[in-house]
Specification:
about 475 residues, alpha/beta, Glutaredoxin, Serine Threonine Protein Phosphatase 5, Tetratricopeptide repeat, 21 helices, about 60% helix
């Protein structure tokens, strides 16, 4: 089953209230853009989550108000007056590019757009306090009055040697979550004097823009190794991680765009270097980046060869029990680093006890759902790799046999419907029809137990039985 991007959610207070129907909403993003252009009003894109249920472990005498302040009539009136509204969910493919470009990963999200789809302000989270939303509205309206990124780009293009206008453009892009500023920072670095690279803030500014690891901006920044070392020792760990991730992502994206294998190697080598003395982790990061590159540029031969080595060496030479222990530790580290206060009550223990004794109502709740790629899920990675080999269409028995072994290991780690579906497809490709049928039937039964749709799985079963898959 195709499952190349999987999201893991971490909940603070795990429920997002539905939004009042009184909001005047457009039927589609396209309609909202058209209405925005005609009315000269900005767009409020409300991106909600689905499938989040209310917590069930609350004390019986404690009632929690999950109502959203966005349902307040005053807030509704203000939104309708000032914005064209389009409400959707994070699964909507028409907004995927918007979410991706501005790195929107926390929901419910409130994304404010100009009629050209340019994001100029964003916020997130659910609260019963209407002040949260009146504040968002005020900030968004203020931001709308500022120069657009398009206008700032025009100013920059008129005088590319003016670093002041370039900084305004980069800062505005960073403000709305755009982390790919590699091309712009090249120009910024080229405009600097030699002495400017002795300035800590200049070097930090270059790194935060995510320069290409083989670009001039990166090389010039690294001429002052003392400042580089200081940055990687003193800046907060989340900032350092963000810097490294931006450099890797921007370098690989440009490499893929231009089909530049040397640039891909440069990005992969930088990814490896970020692991310092953890040589295995570094080698894994290196191969991961090259696999992404080969897949993106559709270099099937290099992908199959590299993937065979990669998954055999990094995923198959360790026991299932060891994998489960590793993943447990990784989840604990991630939670500690990214959500250090997620287990703390939003109000004091004394207040909570007082409300319980009085049979009172806790009226404050907040909902935040953050998403990240489940790259640390061995089962998911092995399933994706196996499916990728099937999807590529290879008939090489060596590659298909590896895919079958990876698929079986993913099921051993997590016996879910989608993984059985992947195995059934590979068995079919190998010519083991009867086993493929039995495996697909297991996938269907698993899906029923998971309360998931079986329509697609049953359709695939028919194709397997009729040998038309």
């Amino acid at each position: 089953m195709k499952n190349l991007i999987t999201l893991t959610c971490v909940l603070f207070f795990a429920y997002t209230s539905g939004i009042a129907q009184e909001l005047k909403t457009s039927k589609s993003l396209k309609t909202a853009l058209e209405q925005s252009s005609l009315s000269k009003k900005p767009i409020l894109l409300i991106v909600d989550v689905i499938g989040i249920s209310k917590p069930t472990n609350l004390p019986p005498n404690v009632k929690v108000n999950f109502k959203s302040g966005l349902e307040d009539q005053e807030v509704i009136n203000s939104v309708n007056e000032n914005f064209v509204v389009f409400k959707t969910t994070m699964m909507d493919t028409t907004i995927r590019s918007i979410l991706s470009k501005s790195n929107i990963r926390s929901f419910p999200a409130y994304v404010f757009l100009r009629s050209n789809k340019e994001v100029f302000f964003k916020d997130f989270g659910n609260s019963p306090d209407k002040q949260k939303y009146t504040s968002i509205i005020e900030k968004a309206l203020q931001a709308f009055k500022s120069k657009s990124i398009a206008d700032l780009e025009t100013e920059f293009n008129a005088d590319k040697n003016n670093n002041a206008s370039l900084v305004r453009l980069i800062d505005e892009r960073k403000k709305v979550g755009i982390t790919n500023n590699a091309e712009l920072i090249e120009q910024y670095a080229n405009n600097l004097r030699i002495g400017d690279f002795n300035n800590y803030q200049n070097i930090l500014y270059i790194l935060e823009a995510g320069p290409y690891s083989d670009g001039n901006a990166y090389k010039l920044a690294y001429t002052n190794r003392k400042i580089i070392d200081s940055i990687y020792k003193t800046e907060p760990v989340q900032k350092r991680v963000a810097i490294n991730n931006a450099i890797i992502a921007n370098t690989l994206a440009d490499a893929a765009k231009n089909k530049n294998i040397l640039k891909a190697y440069a990005g992969a080598n930088f990814a490896r270097s970020t692991w310092n003395k953890d040589y295995r982790g570094g080698e894994k990061a290196y191969n991961n980046q090259l696999l992404w590159y080969y897949s993106t540029v559709k270099d099937t031969t290099s992908y199959l060869r590299t993937a065979s080595y990669f998954y055999d060496n990094f995923y198959m030479n360790i026991s299932a029990d060891s994998i489960k222990k590793i993943e447990t530790r990784e989840r604990e580290v991630f939670t500690k680093n990214h959500f250090p206060t997620s287990n703390k009550p939003s109000i004091s223990k004394e207040k909570m006890d007082s409300l319980k004794k009085a049979g009172g109502k806790i009226v404050y709740t907040q909902s935040v759902v953050s998403f990240r790629s489940s790259s640390n899920s061995y089962a998911n990675e092995l399933n994706n790799a196996a499916w990728k080999f099937y999807e590529i269409g290879t008939k090489n028995l060596n590659y298909l046999s590896k895919a079958m072994i990876w698929s079986r290991r993913s099921i051993e780690l997590n016996p879910m419907a989608g993984y059985y579906d992947t195995l059934a497809h590979i068995l079919y490709r190998l010519g083991y029809n009867e086993e493929a049928i039995k495996t697909q039937e297991i996938a269907i039964n698993k899906a029923k137990n998971e309360k998931a749709s079986t329509v697609q799985l049953e359709s695939e079963l028919k194709k397997i039985k009729s040998k038309t898959l």
